[in-house]
Amino acid sequence: MKSDTVITFPYSYTMNKQPELKRALGLTTAILLVISSMIGSGVFKKIAPMSSTLMDSNLILLAWLLAGIISMFGVFTYSGLASLTEEGGGQFEYFRIIYGRFFGFLFGWTCFTVIQSASIASIAYVFSESVNNLAPFGSPFDSWANVHIGKFIFPFANSGVKLFAIATIIALTIINYFGVKKGGVINDIFSWGKIAGILFLIFAGFFLYHTKSDITTQNAQLIQAQDFNLISGLFTAMLAAFWAYDGWVNLSYIGGEVKNPKRNIPIAIIGGTAVVMIIYTLVNVVYLRVLPVQTFVDIDAAKNKIAAAEVAQTILPGIGYTLISILIMLSTFGATNASLMSSPRIYHQMAKQKLFFKSFGETHPKYHTPHKSLLFQMIWSSVLVMSGTFDQLTDMLIFASFIAYGSGAAGLLYMKMLGKKVINEEDGSIQRVKITAKVIGYPVIPIIFLLVAIGLVINTLITMPNESLTGLSFIAIGIPIYYIVKKQNAN
């Protein structure tokens, strides 16, 4: 092999005589999976906490725009990393190849304990809230609502919503257990439904509503503050927006089941993210066109209202609330399915590489799905549903996600400039492996993405210490778990 050739197979480990995952997902489903993973609950709710932070419509739109641009920078960066392998597992595989087995494990462990499982839990929670808005469940454990852990985790608060969210996770796990195509069909149906619904909301906001709020003259309190406070406020608001944009990387996890992955995965991630950026920009202009910023601040303070629902009710009195609740249900149900469908492939690939408990690597002999990973993920996501509210979960997982995103950008720069020495299993020779694929905007875009990731992580540590330290604690627990797994798989 040439010294600049990307070597894939020395990094691969295949269990003998085991059923394998099937490449059953085409480009259209891949694009819709990206869109469905991204458009979940954030676009309907996050303008409220962003308004409380920034207090100015122009700054709010700037935060959404910057978050979209930075997310696209991340997409470009990871399109380069995608050339490293055709295996599933996405970021886990990239980190294992670049940084080694220990770092790869820590990332996969963080996905299981925080990033992906908390994403599933939080989106299912908002889906359940939307159903509850139309048909209230009640709270069977209301008498225990004030029981807490550390004064910020209240497991029995809002218990009816939490129990329905858990039931949703269980139902979707069962569907995906019986085949990736079944999960793909659900993804396609709900993706088209949510796109149509959001486009109707945008149309209604521009053409059916004629009394608009003054988007240009609302008071900008932070502009009068110190520059540091303004920058910190933008980063805090962007943390909320990044939750809405998060999910673009999920397709890489399921790369082992995508047809022609080296071509289709970059196309799907770039195309899907571009569509979502346009949709998010337009829908937030509609929000601020219909209601003033102070209304969204009040919604955030109330804690039991959904910003998009109040906008829809203003545009279409009487039926707006019902329509937006149905749209949020479609969107969050589809996003829960997309995350639940892709994430187990990380743990499945980890186990194949002898970096996780062996049972996670089992493939169902009939349905060709990572059935054990699906079931274990279902259990932990259900625990996380009981542990926190929507905003606590999303802030914690975005903090952890940007540690990983920054690591990916640094890894791309390293593999493009210096490369890594590896041993060729075929002849024992030592060769230097580099990423030779063209990366849009290299090296400027990966460097900007890396710097933003570092800034966001530092700012979140300062402004949200509880969520940040909880996320870091979950990561730290992975260190002894790594050695336990290593010892188990050595036997």
Task: Give an account of the 3D structure.
The protein contains 19 helices and 2 strands. The protein has helices at 27-38, 42-45, 47-54, 57-81, 91-99, 101-134, 159-177, 180-208, 227-245, 250-253, 261-290, 293-302, 307-315, 320-342, 344-352, 371-387, 390-417, 444-463, 465-490; strands spanning 420-423, 430-433. A two-stranded antiparallel ribbon has the order 1-2. Mean pLDDT is 82; it is low at 1-17 and 216-226. The two termini are 34 Å apart. By secondary structure, it is an all-alpha fold. The longest helix is centred in the first third of the chain and has 34 residues, at 101-134. A hairpin with a 6-residue loop joins β1 and β2. The protein has a single domain, classed as Amino acid/polyamine transporter I (Up-down Bundle), CATH 1.20.1740.
Helix amount, in percent? 55-70%
State the oligomer.
single chain
Average pLDDT across residues? Answer: 82
Q: What is the number of independent domains?
A: 1
Major sheet strand order: 1-2
What is the CATH architecture assignment? Up-down Bundle
Question: First CA to last CA: what distance?
Answer: 34 Å
CATH class: Mainly Alpha
Total strands: 2
Q: In CATH terms, what is the fold-level topology? A: Amino acid/polyamine transporter I
What amount of the residues lies in strands? under 5%
How does the major sheet shape up?
2 strands, antiparallel
* Uncertain stretches of 5 or more adjacent residues: 1-17, 216-226
Shape: globular
N-to-C series of helices and strands: HHHHHHHHHHHHHHHHHEEHH
Structural class: mainly alpha
- Count the DSSP helices: 19
Give the C-alpha Rg. 22 Å
